[in-house]
Amino acid sequence: MGNERKKKRIRWQVLLPPWIVVIAVLVLNLTNYEVFVSSMNRLIGWILKNFAWMFNSISLASLILVIVVYLSPMGRIRFGGAKAKPIIGYTSYVWIVLCTIMGAGLMLWACAEPMSHIHHPPANIAAGPMSGEAILWAMETIMLEWTFTPMAIYALPALLFAFVFYNMRKDFSIGSMLHPLLGDRVTVRWKTVIDCVCLFCLCMGMASSLGSGVLLIVEGVSRFTGGAVQVNAGSWSVCGAVIILCYILSASSGLKRGIKHLSTLNSYFYLVLGLVVFLAGPTAYILNLCVESFGAYLSDFFKLSLWTSSSEGDGWSLWWPQFYWCTWLTWMPISAVFLGKISRGDTVRETLNAIFVIPALFSVVWMALFSGTSINFELQGFGINAAMEASGTAAASYAMLEHLPAAILIIPLFLLTAFISYVTSADSNIHAISSLCTDGLEEDDTESPVSLKIFWGATIGGLCLIMLQAFGIDGMKMLADLGGFLSAFLMILFLAAFIKVIRDPGRFDRHRDNYDHAGRPVIHSNFREENGQFRKGRSGRDKRKGHGWDDGHQSHGDRGFDGGYSESDYGCEGREHRNVPE
């Protein structure tokens, strides 16, 4: 590629259409909100009722395919080629994933969702509300909705995007992920449309998520101050403005500054909160319920994954598991862009550990701690559900925390953790949105102009605050979930494209050093371990000696990582070999 760089330009054809539609939706909400929400509610209900089978099938297929890839030889392939350096340290990578794609949602729903499930179980729970059967059902349903399946929905497209951008050298675009399936001619024709639709859905999703964050934080501040801070439009505006300012500053500072440091800081807060709840809460009950419910989840996995409530006819699953699949699919395209973007230099298996395995296990532990504690407190008559019904979803978490020792210290920590979680989540999405609106991004330079980050940050933040002040965020949530329906069809294409890549990755990969003579993925030495990243979290700037093979092949001695390899070192004589820019 030489030293020449493409000049970065704004993709106006991607930026303007969704922005105009966002403004139009805002005007429509303000002029006739009740009609709009009523119409959208009926539409979402129709989609969930008629396409529950599709959402279930897609989510299960994603999980199965991710497991297959993890165990297959494709797990050895490194994004960007054998000599590609990781963008960030692996520990930072893991914490960024946890804080950006799941953290905020876990904090909001870990206590609230089990209250809804145990008090309003589906018709197939014969023992009824508050029974042991209802409690077990609540926990295994939560584990289905928040652990391995949603991580697979995010992970698979992220792998595909990273492979297409770093290994196939295609444009930085969601639509580019269809290249392996549809070829260049069809993909180039439709990728702009795909980017626009996904970008609009994300704007609605971000605005509604930000609104949920504002409600969660303001409710907590009000309860902590004994009502001195009122839950009203003024407090919402102040809280929202602070979050917006922080995520704009964080996104503008770049990936290796703002979001990296915030995620690392927040990781310690997560650990402290989890440890406090474990030690100060009903420890034995948490452990027993976790083991029992995880066993039930594994035992009933396929039944839960494909359940549609059609036999009972109560529609319960439509508004819980299927609604969640719709929500995860809404965020799927843009999350794939961000997660794929930060995966350069890692193998497929390393990436899956960071995006799929570790976050899923973290969610299991977090739900066991917070959901288990809230259920135990509800059984003791502490009124967790009553608080939620009186003050909204966010109140459940604070009602539970108030009954722990040292609540006066725990609640501020919870508030700070929630605040940073929403900032980092918004930061990652602003990164992805701005990148989609930028032409000229390259493998070693995926930062979009700061002006775009400020533009989109202000647009989405303003949309959220206006809707909160006027009516609420239900309309935006419904539009975001409608986007999940559209994304479901896109996900089907992604699944097909990825299956095609799995069958013969060497056919698409321009980095021949990832394969041996027979075209099979080879095992490279672990760059991160050799460069001390697992130990010190370094970004791979130092050269190390002894870049050998993991499987016992001859070491390459004192040749530095940055050079000194021939094609024969990789078993690639006679094949095209293109170095990744360092």
Please provide the count of β strands: 2
What count of helical segments does DSSP give? 22
The name CATH uses for the topology is: Amino acid/polyamine transporter I
Largest sheet: 2 strands, antiparallel
Q: Write down the Rg.
A: 24 Å
User: N-to-C SSE series?
Assistant: EHHHHHHHHHHHHHHHHHEHHHHH
Report the helical percentage.
55-70%
Q: CATH first level: which class?
A: Mainly Alpha
The dominant shape is: globular
Strand order of the largest sheet: 1-2
**Number of self-contained structural domains:** 1
Distance linking N and C termini: 11 Å
Low-confidence stretches: 533-582
What share of residues are in beta strands?
Answer: under 5%
Structural class: mainly alpha
- At CATH level 2, the architecture is Up-down Bundle
Mean pLDDT: 84
Within CATH, the superfamily carries the name Amino acid/polyamine transporter I
What's the layout of helices and strands?
Blueprint: E1 9-10, H1 12-31, H2 33-71, H3 90-101, H4 103-109, H5 112-119, H6 132-146, H7 148-167, H8 179-224, H9 233-252, H10 255-280, H11 283-299, H12 301-306, H13 321-341, H14 348-379, H15 384-391, H16 395-401, H17 407-436, E2 438-439, H18 450-470, H19 474-503, H20 505-508, H21 527-530, H22 533-536
Helix pairs in contact: 1-2, 1-8, 1-18, 2-7, 2-13, 2-19, 3-10, 3-14, 3-17, 4-17, 5-6, 5-14, 6-7, 6-11, 6-14, 7-13, 7-14, 8-9, 8-13, 8-17, 8-18, 8-19, 9-10, 9-17, 9-18, 10-17, 11-14, 13-17, 13-19, 15-16, 17-18
